[in-house]
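Two folds, back to back.
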Amino acid sequence: MDMTIHDFDMARFLIGDEVEEIYVAGGVMVDPRIGEAGDLDTAILTLRFRNGVIGTIDNSRQAAYGYDQRVEILGSEGSISTANCYPNQAVVSNGKTVHRDLPLNFFMERYTESFVNELRSFVESVRAKRPTAVTGIDGRIPVVMALAARQSYEERRPVRI
């Protein structure tokens, strides 16, 4: 419900279809307090979309080197990928090491422009009295996916949505 909810949003957006089945394997690998709170800190999810696409989400609450987010789509006609954002794009290489800055760590550093665009879109919709680009259903579906994911983990089986 917490750590993967936005990944569900992104998967639906990138694939352009709805998930019909989800399977989760996970555990508490990083912080025992997460487990004590009844949650996971590490999970791998397999998503089966209605259009036949199979997706995976690898998720962990902690990466020693910072906030790590990447997306890769592989298809029969090509691929597309995005990588982490860095404060400095330079990579310094010498005979002993290859070094670069750590990824931007906080979501506000990464997504300021996205938040501004979302707010702008909302205000324009209100002013023009037209529907917003993101609907209540768009908010509900990832919650349903998260509940199915939790059920899958607990029952150790794929769950249809």
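---
second:
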Amino acid sequence: MVSVAAARWLSAALGLAVAACDTGVGPSSSPPAPQAERPAAVGGFDAGPVRTAAEYLAEPRFAAADSARGELLGFACAACHKFKAGEETLIGPNLHGVFGRRAGAVADFAYSRALQESGLVWTPVSLEAWLTDPTGFVAGTTMAFSGYRAPEDRRDLIAYLLRVTQ
């Protein structure tokens, strides 16, 4: 039996997952991020050093992240992506081993030319910029996701992905 509190958390998580997705039909349900929060375009972007997931998770901002909240936010990702090795591709590529991987590098996935040519390497820094506004960060990407506006959402989700995609 599910408690009332657990049911509320699940309802909130599903609401976040639905709100976070952008089907590309009609206007986005979220207002655009203020100009100051928009990431710089990919050209000249510094993704920071490539480290192990354990090293990233030891950083104070990820050590302080709310793992349970990150998992709930991850439901939006799970609508299109799988996280474990060997799992099938859904709408988006499998995210297993994403950290340290060059963007657009999963074999047999039809990435946009923009992402393939971006030169990005996925680190928490580049993923945070991506999760803020994917189409603003890599113009021409085909990922239909409007982004997460709150820095805490991105931090908690990235900490979760660091754990689940290893």
